[in-house]
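quick one before i forget lol
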Amino acid sequence: MTKDKTNVLLFIDEDQHPIAELETPIVFDFDTSKLTDGEHTLKIVSKSPAGREGIRKIKFIVKNGPSISIEGLKEDDIVEGSFPLMINAYDKGNQKSFVIEGSETPQTIPVWMWVIIILIAGWSAYYLITYFDGFPY
């Protein structure tokens, strides 16, 4: 590396070996596919030609694995006995083609939707009965 440019070292989490040593300015293609899902820290250490050093840490979350959705249990729920869970996991694929199968999670119809459907059906039945009640045959 040349002596007239600032160098940067990139570290992941607490690793002692940098993933890259670069001269600035640089555009770096940061590949997270080899990192585990979860919280990580990118530590950037810069070294100026004058010998001064700067450090910056950036926390980020990696989510490369399949998405997991669950219905029937929420965070901090209090439960007892047995109850049904609907679990689905699907991957993003290769990002070059869209795969429909398995990429959507089926969900149950919420209670409020059932109430609206019953109200509309009841109102429709009432309307038809009262409309045709005086209809001459």
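fyi The CA atoms of residues 44 and 50 lie 18 Å apart.
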